[in-house]
């Protein structure tokens, strides 16, 4: 098949949408399909390159400063997008969001009568905290949420079908008014990549990243941004005041300096380590070297980072919010705490740290659960949808957006 995938973010951006898009595109290419990715250029000017069998077409764009230097916004992409679709002549077009570039791709594909699929990675809560003034008040937040959902629905309700990583995500879309068929398909991860590191030398990797060899280490890996709720972990560790525990925060983001200052204010020196960015080659070993993986965010539609930790056999400490309960069961493979509740987070941390003999069993349960989230299964499921929609697609439709 000839497949176009379009999205606001792609490699090297490290958010969940970008990671999923890269994995899907490269997985399809490995199966012998022709794949073009349309994404904003990170070089300003339009560009084209091949990487791991995928043709990546960068559209002229500028960085979204000062908020997200890694996010680039396109302007007037319609003409180039139309030419790309005409030249590539895809069997199906798959958009990853409703932002300006994907909106142009969807309109161009619709005019040409091409089958259209969209995957939703979006929640307004990922954007609202960065909107000045209005985000400070509940009425303002409610207004923004309504507007943001309306913008998303105007695009996704014009597609042939919609996918989302979890059942929770599908329920949210139904509640918001999606009128198209919704399929829940895991983002998936490369299980072999992580399970090949099961025999890693944890002592060496702990030394490299400053993890204490004699403490129970709770590790977070991912974007260090406000919506990840990492303050909850810092406050919980401060409340516990236990010398046998260490919190490790790996990653970079807009909230990193704030968290470092908060760590100093809470006198957590030595109990909290900020590793900064972790290269992809080191990630499986770093995950394996920790005792517990932590995900305090209350806005996860799945959490690829949590899946990766589960793949190396880690028990999970997570907020009981959004889709995380689909991955984590208290007492089975970890502990869920009430979202944004410092006291409950403290309770869960202490409970897990005080029964080290159970952590191994919970980690094994994580490995069993994650087997249903292999990337091969995800790619094959999407391919089935592509083939079905290409066969059953009727043709051009008019847009009401």
Topology:
Elements: E1 2-6, H1 16-30, E2 34-40, E3 47-51, E4 54-59, E5 61-64, E6 68-74, H2 78-88, E7 92-95, H3 100-111, E8 116-119, H4 138-156, E9 161-164, H5 167-176, E10 182-184, H6 191-195, H7 202-209, E11 216-221, H8 230-240, E12 245-250, H9 256-265, E13 272-276, H10 283-289, E14 292-295, H11 304-311, E15 316-319, E16 334-337, H12 342-353, H13 356-370, H14 375-392
Helix pairs in contact: 1-14, 2-3, 7-10, 8-12, 11-13
Low-pLDDT regions = 397-401
Binned strand content: 15-25%
The CATH superfamily of the largest domain is identified as Glycogen Phosphorylase B
Q: First CA to last CA: what distance? A: 29 Å
Largest beta sheet: strand ordering? 3-4-2-1-7-8-9-10
Shape: globular
Largest sheet: 8 strands, mixed
Number of domains: 2
Average pLDDT number: 93
**How many beta-strand elements?**
16
- N-to-C order of helices and strands: EHEEEEEHEHEHEHEHHEHEHEHEHEEHHH
CATH architecture of the largest domain: 3-Layer(aba) Sandwich
Under CATH, the topology of the largest domain is which? Rossmann fold
Based on CA atoms alone, the radius of gyration comes out at 21 Å
Q: In which range does the helix fraction lie? A: 40-55%
Please state the structural category.
alpha/beta
Q: Identify the CATH class of the largest domain.
A: Alpha Beta
| Discrete helix count | 14
């Amino acid at each position: 098949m000839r497949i176009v995938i379009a999205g606001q973010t792609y490699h090297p951006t490290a958010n969940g949408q970008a990671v999923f898009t890269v994995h899907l595109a490269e997985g399809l290419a490995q199966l012998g399909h022709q794949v073009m990715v349309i994404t904003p250029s990170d070089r300003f000017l339009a560009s084209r390159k091949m990487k791991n069998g995928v043709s990546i077409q960068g559209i002229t764009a500028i960085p979204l400063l000062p908020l997200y230097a890694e996010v680039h916004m396109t302007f007037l992409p319609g003409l180039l997008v139309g030419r790309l679709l005409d030249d590539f002549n895809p069997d199906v077009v798959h958009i990853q969001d409703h932002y300006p570039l994907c909106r142009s791709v969807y309109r161009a594909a619709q005019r040409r009568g091409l089958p259209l699929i969209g995957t939703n990675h979006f929640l307004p809560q990922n954007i609202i905290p960065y909107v000045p003034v209005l985000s400070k008040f509940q009425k303002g937040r409610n207004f923004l949420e309504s507007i943001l959902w309306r913008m998303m629905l105007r695009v996704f309700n014009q597609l042939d079908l919609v996918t989302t990583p979890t059942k929770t995500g599908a329920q949210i879309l139904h509640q918001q008014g999606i009128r198209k068929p919704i399929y829940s398909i895991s983002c998936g991860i490369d299980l072999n990549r992580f399970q090949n590191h099961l025999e890693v030398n944890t002592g060496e990797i702990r030394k490299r990243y400053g993890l204490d060899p004699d403490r129970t280490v709770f590790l977070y890996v991912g974007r260090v941004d406000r919506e990840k709720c990492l303050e909850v972990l810092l406050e919980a560790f401060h409340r516990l005041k236990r010398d046998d525990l260490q919190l490790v925060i790996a990653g970079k983001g807009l909230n990193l300096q704030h968290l470092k200052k908060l760590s100093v204010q809470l006198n957590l020196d030595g109990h909290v380590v900020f590793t900064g960015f972790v290269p992809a080659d080191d990630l499986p070993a770093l995950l394996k070297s920790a005792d517990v993986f932590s995900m305090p965010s209350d806005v996860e539609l799945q959490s690829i980072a949590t899946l990766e930790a589960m793949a190396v056999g880690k028990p999970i400490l997570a907020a009981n919010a959004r889709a995380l309960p689909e991955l984590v069961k208290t007492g089975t493979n970890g502990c869920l705490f009430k979202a944004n509740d410092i006291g409950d987070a403290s309770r869960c941390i202490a409970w897990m740290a005080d029964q080290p003999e159970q952590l191994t069993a919970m980690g094994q349960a994580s490995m069993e659960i994650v087997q249903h989230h292999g990337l091969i299964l995800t790619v094959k499921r999407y391919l089935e949808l592509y083939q079905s929609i290409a066969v059953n697609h009727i043709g051009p439709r008019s847009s009401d957006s």
